[in-house]
């Protein structure tokens, strides 16, 4: 019973946890994905604002600091598509005319995913213009492989999976404790029931275990008490029957023995002996029946 209860409660808890976890996982995945992209956009715009307030000589340091903080690759390109700063420390003063850079230099903030031939994977990017005195003087782009965004989502999914497993284990533990609280008193009641045929004076504890087990204990005790009463009455009847049956038989035997002693006829004495033997056999049978009754 313990194992079945543990299995049922564990499966029930798992079903409930999964019913909650699946939609929650979808919501969290979307939320984490959106939050990651939103943070990347905020970091890009913040960097754009910082660059617009700094001389160009400080842009390389700013790109390095932002790259270290965000984990993204930060590049700054001037209006001539010339690379001015790169947090990956690649060669600068070269042409860097990616599509998102062209749009940012045109004054548009862009955020999207595109395949990267350099990385061999999809690239998540946000590009924004750097504006000074109302004029676009450069573009800044923060980019990182799309799988890093996916990894953040997977971490949330993993945490949710751990939660589901923890709920299942907790449910199994609770089920085991409940099963033990029921099974242990039932085992004690069963032990009393097994020993009752040899000792009708035994009684189960009517205050042990849950209400249902207590009811079983009370029913067992009532049955034992009734059996004890029946057995006592049976013994009383057997004792009374022994007296009422064996006393007349004893009288008959004595008379037969007297006939054997006083009769001079051989045939009469032989019949008396046979009758005495039948009386002894009947007395023995009565003793056997009474012994079984006791």
Task: Summarize the structure in words.
The chain has six helices and five strands, in the order H-H-E-E-H-E-E-E-H-H-H. A hairpin with a 2-residue loop joins strand 4 and strand 5 (135-145). With 294 residues, it is an alpha+beta fold. The chain is 68% helix and 14% strand. The longest helix is centred in the C-terminal third of the chain and has 52 residues, at 211-262. It has two domains: 2-157, PAS domain (Beta-Lactamase), CATH 3.30.450.20; 226-293. Helix 1 runs antiparallel to helix 2 (59-70), helix 1 (2-52) packs antiparallel against helix 4 (146-195) and helix 4 (146-195) runs parallel beside helix 5. 17% of the residues are buried. The chain has a five-stranded antiparallel beta sheet with strand order 2-1-5-4-3.
List keywords for this structure.
2 domains; Beta-Lactamase; 294 residues
Q: Care to give the gist of this entry?
A:
This protein is of the alpha+beta class. It is built from six helices and five strands. The protein is rod-shaped.
